[in-house]
Amino acid sequence: MTDQGKKNTDQTSGGRKTRWWNVREVYEEQSVGQAGKEAGGQACLEVSFEASQQGVRQAGQAKGPVNGLAGEQAFFSEDVQEHAGTREGRQLSADEAIDEAIQEAAAVLASGGTVAFPTETVYGLGADARSTPAVEAIFAAKGRPSDNPLIVHIADMRQLDGLVTEVNETARRLMEAFWPGPLTLVLPAVPSAVSPRVTAGLSTVAVRMPAHEVALRLIAAAGCPVAAPSANRSGRPSPTLAQHVGEDLAGVIDGIVDGGPTGVGVESTVVEAGPDGTVTVLRPGGITAEQLARVAAGGVKLDPALLEAAGAQLLPAPKSPGMKYTHYAPRGTLRIVRGAAVRKVAARIGAELDAASRRGEVTGVLAFDEHLPHYRADCVLSLGSIAALETAAHRLYGALRRFDERGVTYILAESCPEDGLGAAVMNRLLKAAGHDVIDV
Fold this sequence. Notes:
Blueprint: H1 3-8, E1 10-13, E2 16-22, E3 25-27, H2 49-56, E4 74-76, H3 78-82, E5 86-87, E6 90-91, H4 94-110, E7 115-117, E8 124-128, H5 132-142, E9 151-153, H6 169-178, E10 183-188, H7 196-199, E11 204-208, H8 213-222, E12 226-227, H9 242-249, E13 255-258, E14 269-273, E15 279-283, H10 289-293, E16 300-302, H11 304-307, E17 333-338, H12 342-358, E18 363-367, E19 379-382, H13 389-405, E20 410-414, H14 422-432, E21 437-439
Parallel strand pairs: 2-13, 7-13, 9-11, 10-14, 15-16, 17-20, 17-21, 18-19, 18-20
Antiparallel strand pairs: 1-2, 3-4, 5-6, 7-8, 8-12, 9-12, 10-11, 14-15
Helix pairs in contact: 4-8, 13-14
C-alpha cells in the first residue's frame, strides 16, 4: 500500500493504532435488498443462506469473487484500488489488492494480533486460538467475562483433526448439511489444542466454518484456528458493519477487515450433537430448529437454560457463548411488549410511550411494518414484515445501534413468533432487554 493509503486506513484511539483493510464490494442496485435500510439508513445486502453456502463451498481452496457473486455482479470500491499500491512496477488489480489486504491481516493474526473480520452472521474479533496471550487480548478488548467460551473458526475440515477427539455421526451429518454456514458444534476437545481461555476450562470446544469467502481466505492464510466472538464491546449489540466495529473497538485492537454489511445479521446457531441422533440447541441463530430437524434423526430439543428467563445466569460455566450474560443491549432501557392481539400490544406500547414522554425520556419503538402506523415516538424503526423474519434478523442489531445514535433512552419492542428465525430474533431481543417483558 502507498503511504497515503496507510494513512487513510488507520485509526488511532487511546494511543493504539488500528489498521483498516478495505475489501468491501460495491453491488449493482438490483443486488442490494431493502433489509436494513430503515435501521440506521444503511443499505444491507439480503442474501439467502442457501445461496451464500453454495457460493463458498470451495472457498479457502479456490479463489473467486467474495460471497459467491460471479463476474460483473461484483466489483470493488474505488478506495481499495486507489490505495492498492504496486507490484512489480504496476498498479494492483482489485482482486490482487484484496489478496494483499487479506495476507496483511492474516500476518497480524499469525503474529498474535487481534483482527476483526466479516462473516455471514456478524463481524468477529479474531485471534490465534492456540495462543493464550492472543486470546486474552480478545477478552481485554471486549471486556468479556472470563467464563464465557469462544467459538473457534476453521477454513478446512482437516483442521478438525487437531482440535477435537471425535466427530460422531450426528455431528458429521450436520457439518455436511450446514458447513460452511452459521452453525457451531460443541465437540470434545483435544487437550491443549487451544488456549484454556477459549474453552473456559471446559472439556469441549465450539467450532464452526463460516460461509464467507473473506473469512475463509483470512483463516486459511493465517494458518491457524481463529477464536472469534462478535467484534463489539461485551454486552453491546453485535456489529453487522465494520463501522460498528470501529465505534466499539478502534484503538484497542490491531485491525479491521471491512467486507461491507453481513448477511444473516444474527450469530450462528450453537448445538450439541448426541450419538443417538438428538441435537440440543444451546443458542438459536442462523440455522433454524426446523432446518436442524430435517437432519437430526433423534429430533431437536432446546437446552433447559433457554427455557428459563434467568436459568442460564446460574450456570457455573456456560457451554456456549450467549447463554449466561445480558448481551446485545442498547444504552437505553429496552422492554418487550408481548401479546397475541395487535391492538392490545399497540395500546400498551402507546401508554408506555406517553408515560415515558412525561418523564422526559427520549422514546423509541422497534416494530414490524404492518404495525408502524400505530406508533408515535421520537424514533420508530422497522424490523420489516412480520411475515419475513429473516429481515428482522438482518436489521435487529443495526436498529439497536441506531437508537443509541439518536440518544434514545426508553425503547419498546414488539415480540414476534418464535418459529424459524423468530427463535433467534426473540432470543437476542430477550437478552438485550434483560428479559424485561410486558405481557398483555
